[in-house]
Design goal:
Blueprint (H helix, E strand, L loop, with lengths): L2 H41 L15
């Protein structure tokens, strides 16, 4: 078994895993920012009284 090839293979897999974790972290931060933006958009509704009352007649 070639020790150098094994070392290179292990380093490549470790790098690949580290890159994958970093990409997932970036996607998570972006999703969190988008969620906060949606919450702010909902909170700054054009008419804050919409949905306050429900009139039902039978």
């Amino acid at each position: 078994m070639d020790i150098a090839a094994l070392s290179v293979s292990l380093n490549q897999s470790a790098l690949s895993q580290a890159v994958g974790i970093k990409v997932l972290s970036m996607a998570n931060k972006q999703a969190e920012q988008q969620g906060q933006g949606i919450v702010q958009l909902i909170n700054t509704s054009l008419n804050p009284n919409v949905g306050q009352n429900l009139d039902i007649r039978v």
